[in-house]
User: What shape does this take?
Amino acid sequence: MLILGIESTCDETGASIVSDGALVLSNVVASQVELHARYRGVVPEIASRAHIENILPVVMEALTGAGLELPNVDAVAVAHRPGLIGSLLIGVTAAKTLAWALGKPLVGVDHVHAHLYSVRLGTGIEIPMPAVGLVCSGGHTALYRVGDFLDVEMIGSTLDDAVGEAYDKVAGILGLGYPGGPVIDALARQGNPAAVRFPRSRLNRQSLDFSFSGLKTSVLYHVRGFQGRQRKTIPAPEEIRDVAASFQAACVDVLVEKVRRAARQIKACSVIIGGGVSANSGLRAAMSKFSLPVFFPPMQYCTDNAAMTAGLGHVLLAAGRQSALDLDAIAATQFNLTKLADLSHATN
Ligand code: KG4
Ligand code: ZN
Assistant: This one.
């Protein structure tokens, strides 16, 4: 089965063709990073307008890349939640229109759920279940109990910033531009992770929730002095490398510790990690020593893409979770992916 996936939840316009839920025939992403970089974050109105311009060229490029034409597609999958409402509406409208015009099934996919599924792309590997799922990205940091890809329950989430958001804000403090993750990751590899002991917010002993805003504020105070006011200049390059390495060490420590707690609590057989921060070299190195099998997506499927949407769409369709053509774009994060999948994938 060939599925056309469409992604437009935030600032990347993506289209992809995936065969049988795993074999990626094409994966096109039109990045808007340059449009948003000067604002050090995504500007929703700019993102929606760019999606309108990009969506059809990206879909056509995905088809051409796979050597297909529109009628060869068996179904259309679209990330319809959560995200920026204006951005979501472009992808959802395009997907509904294509599904209706082609007379092919439509399936709405939860973007966070798709980040978990991304570990199967390229390989179709079977994951020992139940697994602890960690989604760590710019918009989300949450833990899940994954019984299988149709049985996903949230067991912890961030109380404030997402970890990728903390990377982006710390990059701003250090004058490193946007997005912050890749550049901090690269600098961290050259710095001393023990140079500054930034706080690790573990909350209470059992908690599976996260908090990254205190860490971000500690970096601000460390770099600019008490209350972030004393020093206006950007630190020297060696200091930036050490702060980057020390900040990354704090993030990785917390993520690994929470995954360990979750694995113990749900008696997990494996761990799956997705989302933009799953590209992080420090997190990958630390998890390589974990006591259970750990699955990361191939690097090109860590950040937002439509291949993960098409892949998960295959699983949902195979389980009869086709969506009606009145599928809504939903901005909010949903707590229980399975229950909400049941609600929104009403069979036609
Ligand atoms: O999954 P994604 O593309 O978008 C959301 O769904 O939010 O994640 C983007 C986030 C950004 O915050 C970016 O700074 C972060 O992922 N990121 C990284 C790395 N590459 C991207 N964070 C840490 N290390 C990286 N190598
Ligand atoms: Zn994402």
Observations:
- Residues 2-118+302-347 form a domain with the Nucleotidyltransferase; domain 5 fold (CATH 3.30.420.40).
- Residues 111, 115, 137, 275, 304 surround zinc ion (ligand 2) (CB under 6 Å).
